[in-house]
C-alpha cells in the first residue's frame, strides 16, 4: 500500500468520524473523493453510462445509510468497492437491465459530453483519426468485457482497470486469493480470444 | 513444465504473482516454446488494452443527484428497500411480528371465551330457550326437594315427546289396588262409550269389579264428570265430599275442566255445584249404581282415563299368563295429573300416598307408571 493510499485512508477515517458526529459535509467529501472511481467501475461493469450513473448513486445512498455500521475492519475503499460490485451485480441481474442491454444507441459513436460543442482551439492531442481509432478500440474492448461472464468481468475490472491486488479482490468478492488468480487467468484467456484480431 | 501448465500460469506471471520456483519453471518453458511465448505477448497486449481504457468521470451533477436520492427516495425504492432488508434485520422483525401475533391470539381468545359469563349468556338466549331453561331449573329444584320422580320433556302440540318414554326417564310410580271381583249390581261402565248389558259382558270379556276407594278423612275426592263424547251414557261411581246423596255416581270431568286447584282438591261448594252437571247418557237416563259394585274392564277403563286427561300410553305390561294388565306406562300432562289421580282413585285405591304432582305448569308431560295389583 502506497503512502498516498495511507494518507487517503487517514482522510477517509476522519471524514467518516466527522459524518458520524453529525457533519453532513463530510459525506460530500467522501462522495467527491470516490465518485469517479465508483462511476468508472460501474460503467465498466454495466457498459452503460446511464446504468453506471444510477448504480453509482445507489452505491453512495447505501454508503450513506450503512456507514454508521462500518467498523474499520477493512479499508474503506475495499468496503466501497464491495458495495459497488454487489450493486452492479444486482442491477445486471434485473429485468430492466437485460432489456436495456438489447437496445443499441444510435449515437453511440458520438461523445455525449462534447456533442454540440464547437472546439476551435488547437488540439494538442493525437489526430482525430488516432482519437477515433482509440475510441473504437476502447469500444471493442469494452464490448469484450461486457461479453464476459459476470464473475470474469468483475475480476478483470477490479484487477486490470482498477489495479487492485489479488488480496483486495479476494476481500471484495469473497473468493480466496487462489480462486481470484484462477478466475482472472480464465477471464483474461477468454478476453484474449474475443479481442483476437483487434489487438 | 508443459505448455498446458505454462499457459495456466501466464496470467499470474504477468502480474508477478507466482512463487519463485514456479516463475523460474515458466521462464524456462517460455525460453524454449515459441507458441507459449506468443501467447504471453498476446495476453500482455490484451491486459494493456484493458488497463489503458479511458477512465470515465462521473457526471458533474453527481453529488446533487446523490443528495436527491438520499433526501427524496422514491416510494418504489423505499418499498424495495424495506423488502430487501438484510436478513439480520428482516428475520428479527419477522420473528418479532410472529411472537406479537401469538401473544395477541393468546391474549384475545381466552378472554373472549370466558368473557361471556353464564348470566350474560343466559340473557342472550332466545326467549323460548330461556323459558325452557327456567322450566328445567324449576324441575331440578323440585326434584331435589321431592326426589327424582319424573324426567319430563316439553309437550308440544298435545303430543308427548319421545324422550318422555325413553329408558332414561324416571316415571312416577303409582300402585293401584284393584278390588276383587264381586257380584255385579248395576250396569257396566264401558269407557268406549257403549252401553252393554251386563250379561253380555260377562260372557265375552273378563271383567273386574270396581270399587271406589273409601273416602279418606283428610282428603276428599273431587266430583268428576264424564266427557259425553268419550264416556257415553255410562256413569261411573265415585265419591265426593257430598257423596252421601249420590253415592256411587262418578262424574268424570270434561277435558277442559280442571279440578279445583289442580291437585284434585275442590271446595265443597264447587263440588256441590258440579254435581248437578252430570251429563245424561245419549241412550237415556243414567242409572246410578253403588260404589264398589261397578264392574269394568280395567285396561280399557284405565286407557280411557289416560286419554281423557290428554295422556299417551307408551306401554302396557300384562301379568304372566293372564289378560289382566300388570302395569301401564303413560305420559300425563302435568296440568291434568291431579285429575288423573282422582280418576285412578275411582278405579281403585292408590297405595303409598302417591306423588300429588308438581306445581301447575303447562306443556309439560309427566311419565307415570301405574302398577295394578288385585286386592287381597
Q: Which chain pair has the greatest contact?
A: A-B, 41 and 30 residues
Distance between the termini of chain A: 32 Å
What's the β-strand tally of chain A? 0
**Computed Rg of chain A:** 19 Å
**Which range best describes the helical content of chain A: under 10%, 10-25%, 25-40%, 40-55%, 55-70% or over 70%?**
over 70%
Low-pLDDT parts of chain A are 1-7, 108-118
Report on the biggest sheet of chain A.
none
- Global structural class of chain B: alpha+beta
- Tertiary shape of chain A: globular
The oligomerization state is: heterodimer
- The side-by-side strand order for the widest beta sheet of chain B comes to 4-5-7-1-6
Distance between the termini of chain B: 134 Å
Radius of gyration of chain B: 52 Å
Quickly count the domains of chain A. Answer: 2
Provide a brief overview of the structure.
The complex is a heterodimer of chains A (199) and B (376). Chain A has 199 residues and is an all-alpha fold.
Protein traits:
A: 199 residues, mainly alpha, Rna Polymerase Sigma Factor, Chain: A, Arc Repressor Mutant, subunit A, B: 376 residues, alpha+beta, 3 domains, five-stranded mixed β-sheet, 11% strand
Characterise the protein shown here.
The complex is a heterodimer of chains A (199) and B (376). By secondary structure, chain A is an all-alpha fold. Chain A folds into two domains: 104 residues, Rna Polymerase Sigma Factor, Chain: A (Orthogonal Bundle), CATH 1.10.1740; 74 residues, Arc Repressor Mutant, subunit A, CATH 1.10.10.10. Helix content of chain A is 71%, strand content 0%. Chain A contains nine helices and no strands. The N terminus of chain A is likely disordered. Chain B has 376 residues and is of the alpha+beta class. At the A-B interface, helix 2, helix 3, helix 6, helix 7 and helix 9 of A face helix 1, helix 3 and helix 4 of B.
Amino acid at each position: 500500500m502506497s503512502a498516498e493510499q495511507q494518507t487517503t485512508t487517514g482522510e477517509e477515517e476522519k471524514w467518516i468520524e466527522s459524518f458520524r458526529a453529525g457533519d453532513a459535509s463530510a459525506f460530500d467529501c467522501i462522495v467527491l473523493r470516490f465518485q469517479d472511481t465508483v462511476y468508472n467501475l460501474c460503467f465498466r461493469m454495466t457498459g452503460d453510462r446511464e446504468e453506471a450513473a444510477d448504480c453509482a448513486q445507489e452505491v453512495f445512498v447505501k454508503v450513506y445509510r450503512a456507514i454508521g455500521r462500518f467498523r474499520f475492519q477493512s479499508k474503506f475503499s475495499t468496503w466501497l468497492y464491495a458495495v459497488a460490485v454487489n450493486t452492479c451485480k444486482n442491477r445486471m441481474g434485473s429485468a430492466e437491465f437485460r432489456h436495456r442491454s438489447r437496445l443499441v444507441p444510435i449515437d453511440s459513436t458520438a461523445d455525449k459530453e462534447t456533442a454540440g460543442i464547437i472546439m476551435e482551439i488547437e488540439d494538442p492531442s493525437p489526430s482525430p483519426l488516432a482519437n477515433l481509432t482509440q475510441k473504437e478500440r476502447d469500444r471493442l474492448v469494452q464490448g469484450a468485457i461486457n461479453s464476459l461472464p459476470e464473475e470474469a468481468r468483475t475480476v478483470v475490472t477490479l484487477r486490470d482497470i482498477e489495479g487492485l491486488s489479488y488480496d483486495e479482490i479476494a476481500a471484495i468478492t469473497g473468493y480466496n486469493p487462489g480462486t481470484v488468480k484462477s478466475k482472472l487467468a480464465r477471464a483474461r484467456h477468454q478476453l484474449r480470444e474475443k479481442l483476437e484480431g483487434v489487438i | 513444465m508443459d505448455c498446458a501448465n505454462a499457459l495456466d500460469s501466464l496470467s499470474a506471471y504477468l502480474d508477478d504473482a507466482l512463487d519463485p520456483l514456479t516463475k523460474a519453471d515458466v521462464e524456462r518453458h517460455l525460453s524454449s516454446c515459441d507458441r507459449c511465448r506468443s501467447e504471453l505477448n498476446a495476453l500482455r497486449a490484451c491486459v494493456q488494452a484493458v488497463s489503458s481504457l479511458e477512465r470515465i468521470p462521473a457526471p458533474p451533477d453527481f453529488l446533487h443527484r446523490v443528495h436527491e436520492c438520499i433526501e427524496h427516495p422514491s416510494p418504489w425504492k423505499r418499498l424495495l428497500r424495506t423488502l430487501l432488508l438484510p436478513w439480520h434485520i428482516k428475520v428479527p422483525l419477522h420473528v418479532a411480528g410472529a411472537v406479537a401475533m401469538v401473544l395477541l391470539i393468546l391474549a384475545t381468545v381466552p378472554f373472549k371465551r370466558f368473557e361471556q359469563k353464564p348470566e350474560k349468556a343466559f340473557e342472550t338466549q332466545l326467549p323460548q330457550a330461556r323459558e325452557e331453561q327456567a322450566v328445567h331449573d324449576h324441575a331440578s329444584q323440585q326434584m331435589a326437594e321431592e326426589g327424582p320422580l319424573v324426567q319430563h320433556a316439553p309437550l308440544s302440540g298435545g303430543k308427548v315427546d319421545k324422550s318422555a318414554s325413553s329408558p332414561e326417564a324416571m316415571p312416577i310410580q303409582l300402585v293401584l289396588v284393584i278390588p276383587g271381583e264381586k257380584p255385579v249390581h248395576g250396569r257396566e261402565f264401558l269407557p268406549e262409550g257403549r252401553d252393554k248389558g251386563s250379561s253380555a259382558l260377562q260372557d265375552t270379556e273378563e271383567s273386574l269389579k270396581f270399587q271406589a276407594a273409601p273416602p279418606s278423612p283428610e282428603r276428599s275426592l273431587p266430583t268428576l264428570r264424564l266427557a259425553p263424547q268419550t264416556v257415553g251414557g255410562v256413569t261411573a261411581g265415585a265419591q265426593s265430599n257430598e257423596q252421601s246423596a249420590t253415592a256411587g255416581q262418578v262424574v268424570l270431568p270434561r277435558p277442559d275442566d280442571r279440578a279445583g286447584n289442580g291437585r284434585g282438591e275442590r271446595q265443597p261448594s264447587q263440588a256441590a255445584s258440579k254435581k248437578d252437571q252430570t251429563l245424561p247418557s245419549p241412550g237415556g237416563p243414567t242409572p246410578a249404581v253403588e260404589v264398589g259394585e261397578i264392574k269394568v274392564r280395567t285396561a280399557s277403563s284405565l286407557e280411557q282415563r289416560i286419554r281423557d286427561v290428554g295422556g299417551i300410553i307408551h306401554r302396557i305390561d300384562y301379568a304372566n299368563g293372564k289378560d289382566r294388565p300388570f302395569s301401564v306406562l303413560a305420559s300425563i300432562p302435568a296440568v291434568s295429573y291431579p285429575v288423573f289421580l282422582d280418576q285412578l282413585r275411582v278405579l281403585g285405591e292408590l297405595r303409598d300416598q302417591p306423588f300429588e304432582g308438581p306445581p301447575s305448569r303447562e306443556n309439560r308431560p309427566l311419565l307415570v307408571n301405574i302398577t295394578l295389583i288385585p286386592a287381597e
